[in-house]
Amino acid sequence: IGCKTSCTNEQFQCKNCRCISKSLTCDSKNDCGDNSDENQLELHCGCKFPCADEQFQCNNCRCIAKSWTCDHKNDCGDNSDEYAHCSYPVCSGNQFTCANKQCIPQKWVCDGNNDCNDNSDEAGCDNYECEPNEWSCPSTGKCISAQQVCDQVKDCRLGEDEEKTCSRTSCTTLNCEHDCYPTPFGGSCYCKPGYVINKKDNRTCIDFDECGGHKHKYCDHICSNFNGSYSCSCYPGYQQHDGIHCRSRAKD
């Protein structure tokens, strides 16, 4: 949308159509009110006051401590202290990589809390499928262990896992292949480790493919799936650590 009035030759026209003196541009002050007079990329502003040696100069000319860079926090206000010039470590197999490259424990994903500080650990959780022998909280989609359902401790945000209707009344009619645990809905079938309930009948058990691209990463590098099990291996130059993780041989 164009501005209805034009500024004079001695003035700068802000994005919000306000007119200010050209001398007020690139002075590290928001004179326009929309910060368009401080747009470093469009105006090619140079920072008038360089930062001290122990400080980092942001693209918007703000000075922050160098220790604040690459800490997954937008200390500059324009994110120039993050991402582009940062070399973040690769998250391990039991961690989740946030959009801001921060590593958090895998169990924090889809727990209803913004642990990444950019909410990427909660994105798409409405369609998130729980791992084998986990139960999905109806209100948030948070996955909890099947053993935590009806154990008299409220693990779901609204306490849906501990309703007064907790029972195993449906277990006799479900005819579970492996076993049945109590739920607020009368019971649910579950399988032994390495297997998952077949969604076609909700009672029989089929192999769970740990290598199938789940949010939980079972292996750091190479994953091989077997019936009821899986194994991990590492790329050349790395050695296996605790059966799941890989670390560089050069560090030894």
Automatic annotation (TrEMBL):
Coiled coil: none annotated. InterPro entries: EGF, EGF-like_Ca-bd_dom, EGF-type_Asp/Asn_hydroxyl_site, EGF_Ca-bd_CS, LDL_receptor-like_sf, LDLR-related, LDLR_class-A_CS, LDrepeatLR_classA_rpt. Pfam families: EGF_CA (PF07645), Ldl_recept_a (PF00057). One of its GO terms (cellular component) is receptor complex. It is found in: Membrane. It comes from the Eukaryota. Keywords: Disulfide bond, EGF-like domain, Glycoprotein, Membrane, Receptor, Repeat, Transmembrane, Transmembrane helix. The keyword Lyase does not apply. SMART domains: EGF, EGF_CA, LDLa. CDD domains: LDLa. Its main location: membrane. The keyword Nucleotide-binding does not apply. Disulfide bonds join C7-C19, C14-C32, C51-C63, C58-C76, C91-C103, C98-C116, C110-C125. Residues 232-246 form the EGF-like domain. GO terms for molecular function: calcium ion binding; low-density lipoprotein particle receptor activity. It is a single-pass membrane protein. This is EGF-like domain-containing protein. It comes from Mytilus galloprovincialis.
